[in-house]
Amino acid sequence: xxxxxxxxxxxxxxxxxxxxxxxRAFRDSMGRGMGGFADYENYxxxxxxxxxxxxxxxxxEVLDEAIERTDAHNPTLNAVVQRCDDVARQRAxxxxxxSPLAGVPFLIKDIVYQRGLPSTSGSRLFADFVPDHDxxxxxxxxxxxxxxxxxTNTPEFGLTTTTEPALYGPCRNPWNLEHTTGGSSGGAGxxxxxxxxxxxxxxxxxxxxxxxxxxxxxxxxxxTRARNPVGPDVGEGWGGMSIGxxxxxxxxxxxxxxxxxxxxxxxxxxxxxAFDGSYLAACADAPGALRIALDLAPLTxxxxxxxxxEAARHAAALCESLGHHVQExxxxxxxxxxxxxxxxxxxxxxxxxxDTRLTVLGRELATDDIEAATRQTLEYGRAVTGTExxxxxxxxxxxxxxxxxxxxxxxxxxxxxxxxxxxxLGWLDTRDDDQSSYGERFRNFWGFTNLQNATGQPxxxxxxxxxxxxxxxxxxxxxxxxxxxxxxxxxxxxEQVQPWFERRPSLGGH
Length: 510
Fold this sequence. Notes:
It is built from 17 helices and 11 strands. The chain has helices at 5-8, 20-30, 45-53, 59-77, 85-93, 136-143, 186-193, 210-216, 251-261, 279-282, 306-321, 335-361, 372-383, 386-406, 438-443, 450-455, 484-497, and strands at 80-83, 105-109, 147-152, 199-204, 219-222, 243-248, 291-294, 325-328, 412-416, 459-466, 472-479. Helix 11 links the parallel strand 7 and strand 8 (325-328). Helix 12 (335-361) packs across helix 13.
């Protein structure tokens, strides 16, 4: 029998490497799956697209498998909150573009515009809002030949690190159903970890790609600011802190998706440093010996959980075994000042989004329109002055200069992705009117990812560690602005020396 690793670990070709007769024998020996394609889960997105291109399986068969897996697992996980199966099936029957990802089933986070489907941002206030056009990133996914068949669960306005919105209910982690998938791209994380799709769209304004990747044992790259477009409806998300990409099971998929989507949209206010090559083609190349700073101090001033510290030290040892130099070091900036500044920017943006919606609806805010934690954010945002907002932006820019200077001495920084392993569902309650304990609990879960949103740097979370209870613990690598490729190359090295693709959740509690 052919090892599935042959289809997912060959970075040199970027294609399926087994011969057609062997693949056919492999499929026949496995029998038929939910949708007639039993070994679907043994392939990443590039592997599936390679099978489709080779005529080994049709795009319709692959899509049917993804749909049937959604039907089977979603009642338990609550990862996918909206469906457009018929639209995707129609697209699967059409001629697909010549693309490395053509025919792959795909899911969009319920926080960006997708024509004809509700774009709720996880909020009851937007439950009936249906855009008449796609966001630019969605257009680029269509152009790559991806088959978009649904939208994934997200907390209200992407504001927290767990995915338990009042509108749709909690999303459950396939590794342990009583624990969080992380946020805010929690539905995406659960869908990919459960094998519904090999990769899914995600966004990151304070860690929301990397956090679900850490909680669900996935690869999560937050690209350099403006590497992917956020338009056309906005020029920036959260003062330039937010950007979209994917969570995936393999590094090469993350690289391939970046190839398909990167580059500015006409009129964008920011431009990432130009990259003219292929991330997929180059991510197999060794990055050379890297100077890596190990930082174990959360921004929130608490102590990281021992499991997260152990995960980071384990990653450091792996890096040293690959010839990289690791030294404990931290950039010197005012962490409390940065947290305050990012809070001002997020709150003001949320207040603008809510008040704009209320103006369109022509009414005042109702009690059950938004959750208690969001209401506090709204009140704070409404009170922010123009001067305070400008000050906050200046803090971000000043911090970015300090960190850029730090990266003159270190190529990368290594941290835990989170302050603790995935927390139980309900531990962060955004609906309770008494929010007195929420902030403290938040600080004890989140505290390593926000810096890179403020500075615009790329950062990637990779799955190299699990707790004794089999909960994933991610580690984060951070690069200089524009150094997305270096992160992908190092992640590919780590994936080779400690493969994670074969390690999968049971979808049950433990």
